[in-house]
Structures are given as C-alpha cells and as structure tokens.
Design a protein that fits this description.
The protein has 293 residues and is of the alpha+beta class. Helices cover 35% and strands 11% of the residues. The protein folds into 3 domains: 68 residues, SH3 type barrels (Roll), CATH 2.30.30; 97 residues, Orthogonal Bundle (Cytochrome Bc1 Complex, Chain D, domain 2), CATH 1.10.760.10; 70 residues. Strands 1, 2, 3, 4, 5 and 6 form a 6-stranded antiparallel β-sheet that branches.
Amino acid sequence: MRVKQTFSIASAALLLGSFVFAQVPKADTQEKPSGPKKEAKRDPIDSPASLPRPKSRAPQTYPVEQIQAGELRFAAQCGFCHGRDAAGGESGPDLTRSELVAQDLGGDKIAPLLRAGRVDAGMPSFELADSDVKSIVAFIHNQMDKFATLGGGRRSVEPADLATGNVADGRAYFNGAGGCSGCHSATGDLAGIANRHQGLELLQRMLYPSGRPAPSQPKAIFTLPSGQTIIAPLTAEDEFTVTVLDPLGTPRTYPRSAVKVKIDDPMSAHFVQLGHYTDSAMHNVYAYLSTLK
C-alpha cells in the first residue's frame, strides 16, 4: 500500500492515543570547540609502558607437572580477571609484570595474597589446598620467566599510561569549548565516576558511553499537522525511513517524506565530539574526570 504524504487520520489517532505529548525543546546551540592550548608532550621514556619488566628476586624452577597443574587451576580461579596466561585480563593486572611476583620466593607473598584477597581492589579470597596454591605459584613464576624472554611491551593498559593530561585544562574544556557541561554535571550524573571506572574503562566510558547506567534511548519526535508533538522510542533510522516502537513494543516504520520528525539522541553529542577531540583535549578531560571521586 502506498504511504500518503501526510498522516492519515488513523495514523494520527494511533500516535495521539499511544505516545506521550511533549513540547519540542529548542535545539541548543553551541560553538564548535576550538581546542585547548597545546601542551608539552610527555617524553616516551616516562611512559609506564616503556619501563623494563621487574626481575625475579632469585631464579626459581618448578616441575613441569606442577606448572601444568597450576595452569589449569589458574585458568579456573584467576583467568577471568588476569587472563588465562596471567598477562592481564578483564579487570586484573598483568602478573608477569608484577613487582609482588618478582619479589616472591616459592609463594611466600603470593600464597598469603590468594588466601586473604584484596577486597578493595575487587579480588576475592580463595580457599585452596596447599598443593593447588603451590601449583598456581609455579605457573605464575613460569609465565613471568617466559614473558621476560619475549620482545615487545605490555598488551594491557594501566591507569598510569593514560595519566598524561592536565586537570585544570580538562575542567576548562569540559565547562567550555567541549560543551560537556551542557548535558553532564560533576556534582550530578558524573559524581563519583572515578570510583566506578578507572583507567581504560573510564576513557572508554567517556568516549563511547555504555554499560550501567545505560545512556538514554534515542527518541523520535513527530510533529502532527495540528502542531502537536508526539515522542516515540527510536529503534532505527536512515535517510529514507524512521522506525519507532508503539506502546505494545511493535516496530512501526514511517517514510521521512510522509512525516515531520526530529531525532533526539543523547549520544549524538559524543559522536560529534569524537571529530573534535585532539589528543591533549581527550587526555585533559580524562584527567579531570579522574578527580571526580
């Protein structure tokens, strides 16, 4: 069936009876960011990634069978956070570069840590048999020795790697040229964000907001011939059509040529900002957000 160029009475009635009425807010106007002043770049030699691996306090060798058993136990108990190879994972650091591991002798430091955990860092305590602990210790030390012989640097990103920005310049950009304060507040939605996200996770949250709480869902704002406006959850759009959900959750697609519609997507400002960020501005804002605890 060919779609008419204006809302039919039935379509208008469906929208009027289904969606919430609202006044279309005037679009905010903001100046394009001119970018903050240039800063002196940190010498690469100062980067934590350039630092040499810690050296083991003393040479340690373990039976192959013990190392293999430790590999299986480590993967089951520790692999999710530290990676199956102990070189860093979902949230845990790279143990092959750990100073604690380097200073450990036969488990004198690793074993107490496994049993006590680090609750403040998100590491639980483990109730393990002595044989399992010794196997895990053997595996970790073997991995440290193995990675020490390989070229290249770390595959993980530590918070210190990203701490290159200037807090004052980041605050100025957030409240000024970046336009961030138009949607966000250091004492509102971003209060304590540095306690919830650190390092690469905080930077990713800043550039591509996701996770919890989830960003607000984009909306399509229809303007009817009567001048009334109707808001509907947006599920998809392109240059020809707009797809929204009706109150029953059923997708409905309208040709752009047949309706007058405006898209309100809270994420759009972030997408625009990606095209304006300089490296220094990005790290300055990150440095500022890191202070919101």
